[in-house]
Amino acid sequence: MRFDESIFKAYDIRGIYGKQFDAKLAYWLGRAFVTFLECKSVAIGRDSRPSSEPIFKELSRGILDQGANVVEIGQCTTPMLYFSVGNYKYDAGIMITASHNPAEYNGFKLVKKGAVPIGENNGMQNIKGIMLEEKFSDSKARGQLEKKIIMNDYCAHVLSKLSTVREMTVVVDTANGMGGLEVPKVFESLPIKLIPLYFDIDMTFPNHEANPLKFETLKALQQRVVKEKAQLGVALDGDCDRVFFVDEKGDIVPADFITALVAEIYLKHNPGAKILYDLRSSWIVKETIEKNGGVPGMCRVGHAFIKQQMRDQHAVFAGELSGHFYFADNFYTESGIITTMKIIELLAIERKPLSELVAPLKKYFQSGEINFTVKNSKAVIAKLENEFKGKTISHLDGLKVDNQDWWFNVRPSNTEPLMRLNAEAKTQKSLDEIKTKVEALIRG
Fold first, then answer.
1. What is the fold, at CATH topology level, of the domain defined by 5-149?
2. Which of these is catalytic: 41, 51, 99, 335?
3. What CATH topology corresponds to 169-242?
4. Which of 122, 187, 299, 319 shows the greatest Cβ crowding within 10 Å of its Cβ?
5. pTM to 2 decimals?
6. Distance between CA atoms of residues 239 and 337, nearest Å
7. Which residues lie closer than 8 Å to 308 by C-beta, 6 or more apart?
8. 99 catalytic per annotation
9. What DSSP character marks residue 74?
10. Res 413: pLDDT
11. Do the domains 169-242 and 5-149 match in fold?
12. Each residue of 204-245: pLDDT tens digit?
């Protein structure tokens, strides 16, 4: 068994179909997956890419040949697959998707019982090793394939997170991704005027990339929200595990502000609860959690780390700057549509425009994420740490340096050969100064 080993990433398996891997790899992955987990039932979902069907056939054949049963969920979003594994208590699950990547890509997101993710530190390398060495366990009997229709149960689960709602207009952009499958079903019973943008599922993404983290993809949504006089704009990524929001004025709401707003809702129902936020988030997130009687906790970037920390520390909610939002009552997994329900709930409770709810959070000055191509990230981090000796330093994820007037974090990307910089300060002048200094040190 030979394949491009670079397709095994920190959090998933992803590459160009037909070039870096083909359907044959899916067969061997299925066998290795069952060998490693010793599982008896595997739920499989897939997105609508043309390559997803042949990949599913070979993946399921490998799982069946290895003696485990396959539960075919069919075309779905990644949160739908997570829900299936958690709700029906299957031993494991695999989502066939490349999320927002272009049509020629595909891949796999792997979870074990309870929808716990499998990544590079808890099984991904073991599975790769089994494939490369072809050390599969003996299977005495072939597994069985069953099909499972989950949409009604899934919609009931999502809507159970919405405690109150009122009439409003909401524009949702699913970017021709898998959101076109779940969003109409979830919204059909709500007293909300739903304005659809690019709901036709076409994972060649003919209108724009399905990556709301790239704010240029949100222009059509921003314009439509203003035109329709909508109360909210929602942008989902290709497989619906990430979401960004636009307020009634057409302005993009930063994801860390959404973390703060959703934290307020959870703390109303869960006084004193633990809320996690990734270390790139604004100071205002920690302040908001504390103000509402919660216990804030900082976490590393990356869903596998965050989900584990949530479990370990019994956190009820966590938010990430990339638009991933995690819920303990959703099997500790992320969900764009549940986050949308919580923002709709917030607007119903507060009866104020989203821009008014966001305004008090705009207290500090932020750099946004700045990327640098570097040859030796460890050397860069060591140089920065030496330069800022005496400041408050953390190695939770890369290097974070805190001062009374500013903070910055530099961390190597988990998926690309990049160094990422985020900074925040109490004044624009302080931000400009620290950003300029750190940028010079990284480039120098």
1. Alpha-D-Glucose-1,6-Bisphosphate; Chain A, domain 3 (3.40.120)
2. 99
3. Alpha-D-Glucose-1,6-Bisphosphate; Chain A, domain 3 (3.40.120)
4. 319
5. 0.96
6. 11
7. none
8. yes
9. E
10. 82
11. yes
12. 999 999 999 999 999 999 999 999 999 999 999 999 999 999
